[in-house]
Structures are given as C-alpha cells and as structure tokens.
Amino acid sequence: MNKKLLIFNWKSAPATVGAAIKLARTTENYSKSSRVDIVIAPPFLFTEEVGKFIKKAKLGSQDVFWSASGRTPADKISYTGEISLRQEKNLKVKHVIIGHSERRRLLKETDAMINKKVLATLKAGLKVILCVGEPARASAPLKNAEQTQNYADTKIRTTTNLKWAKNYMKKQLEKDLKNISLNSKSYILNSRLIIAYEPIWAIGTGNYCNSKDAVEIIKFIKKILDLRFKIQDLRILYGGSINGQNIKNFLQYDEINGFLIGGASLKPKELSTILRLTN
Ligand code: PGA
User: Fold this and answer.
1) Distance between Cα 242 and ligand 1 center (Å)
2) Which residue's alpha carbon is nearest to atom 1 within ligand 1?
3) Is 70 in the pocket of ligand 1 (CB under 6 A)?
4) Is the CB of 198 under 6 A from ligand 1?
C-alpha cells in the first residue's frame, strides 16, 4: 500500500512508435526495482508495440468506450472511432484513465459518460484511474510558494477556497461513481478503483498544487469514499505539472499514493529524475 504508483500519460505524443519505444526503454531500466509500480499509458496507436516491449511496467490506456464491444446492445448503435474494452483487454491493458479533465473540458465529456465508463471498466476487470479536480475559480494560487521557495511566508489558498474545492470534489465523485453499490464493493472496488486528484488549473501549466493543499484534499477524498464504500486502502494519486524538481515536495507525504504525470514523462531527462527519486 505504501508503494507509490506512477502513471505516465503520454497524451498524443510522441509522434512515432520508435520514439515511444525509446521512452519506454528509460522506464524499463528503472522499473526493475520493486519500490514503485509503473504504468505507461501511450497513445492507443502505440499500445501494442509498447506492450510487447515492456516487461516490468504495466500497460495503461488514456480512455475507453463504455461498451465492451464498441456497440451498445440496447440501442444497437456502433460508435465510429471509439476503442472498446474488449480491444484494450486483448492488448493486455490493465489500467484505464477515465475522466481526464482535458476530455471533460475540451471534448465535453460529461459525468454521466464518465460514470458509464467507470462501471463498464470495473465490470470488465480492469483498473480505473478516475481523474477528478476543481477548476481555477477556487484554487488559483495567489502565489505558488513552493515554486518561489518561500512556503512559510506565502498564503497559498484561503480556507474558503479549500472548502469550495472539497465540495466540488464531493459532487464530482458522487456523479462519477453513481450506481456503484456497497454490495458490489468487493467485486468492484477491491483495489480496482484508483483516484487521481488533478486540479484543472495545474494540468500542463507548470503551476502545480501546493503539496499541503493536495494532501488535505486527498485526505478528504479518502474520507468520503471510506464513508460510502468502507474501504480504507484506496490509492489516491496527485497529478498536475509534476516534474523532477517539485516531486520532492510531494514524496514526503504517505497520503499521496503516487502520481499521474503528463509532460514530464515525455522528457527523458525529467523522466529519469522522477524514476530515480521514486526508486
Ligand atoms: P501534466 O499532465 O503532468 O503535463 O500537468 C498531467 C496529466 O495529464 O494528467
């Protein structure tokens, strides 16, 4: 449980399968150590090749369609361009990122769609990395103290902002995890559900969340999920502009069970530093 989990979200990069394998090689060199669990979520196009190459790291995907076959029996409709759970399973994908804020915000993915994906993925026996996070309103840092190396003197977020963010998180989790019942707890939740707390304003901006605030929100998420499902060993990750430098601020907290890393996982130097620091 204390073992950190690193998810590398390569988004739509790199441009070639050769470059993807090169990055995977860096990861493989480090993943021999047993101190960290590593998941690579390449662009779906490269899944098969990366999957053949990696031995220690696990394979993830950045999204999935909610029906096992890509065609819903109820409405008998096929969905052009979508990737089915069956296809992902056949490629040995083990973890599926669902509800990434870039998909929510830019591609208008709704909580209802995310909920369908979560339910279908858990049912199919794959692990879900459910991304949640509040927009800028509540938490735009007045000044990011950790970036200015001046933590003690700087007010990061007001209590009202933190309260607002927690409330936002509660509502989002209720909608995204709707219809997951307590009865199906062991079947569905037994270490198959992982939450990634990713404040939207921190993703891809270089403006990472203050680690103390992240811990406070992560503890809150743990508490509400424990109340609802009675599971204490849920893994909750932080994501949003993590790099080889700032990861040190977060590593000191046991409450943060790992990281969802985008941009830095595509830069070999950053990637190596992250892997060195977490191993
Ligand atoms: P970032 O992306 O590390 O580039 O901010 C995080 C993510 O994709 O979830």
Assistant:
1) 7
2) 262
3) no
4) yes
At 77 the pLDDT is 74
72 phi, psi to nearest 5 deg:
-85, 125
Predicted local distance difference test score (pLDDT) of residue 157: 56
**3-state DSSP assignment of residue 140:** coil
Instruction: Find out whether the beta carbon of 133 lies less than 6 Å from any atom of ligand 1.
Output: no
Instruction: Encode pLDDT of 100-109 as tens digits.
Output: 999 999 999 9
Tell me which residue has its CA closest to atom 2 in ligand 1: 262
Mean pLDDT of the region 3-15 = 96
Q: Work out the average pLDDT over 65-91.
A: 83
**Distance between CA atoms of residues 80 and 70, nearest Å:** 9
Q: Does 145 have pLDDT greater than 80? A: no
Distance between CA atoms of residues 247 and 169, nearest Å: 23
Q: Is the CB of 242 under 6 A from ligand 1?
A: yes
Distance from C-alpha of 97 to C-alpha of 112, rounded to nearest angstrom: 16
Strands 258-261 and 95-98, how do they pair? Answer: unpaired
The answer to whether residues 143 and 208 touch, using CB atoms and an 8 Å cutoff, is no
The SS3 assignment for 221 reads helix
Alpha carbon nearest to ligand 1 atom 6, residue = 262
First to last CA, the chain: 15
- Active-site annotation, residues: 100, 198
Task: Express each pLDDT in 160-190 by its tens digit.
Answer: 688 889 999 999 999 999 988 766 555 556 6
Closest C-alpha to 168, from 201, 198, 135, 212: 135
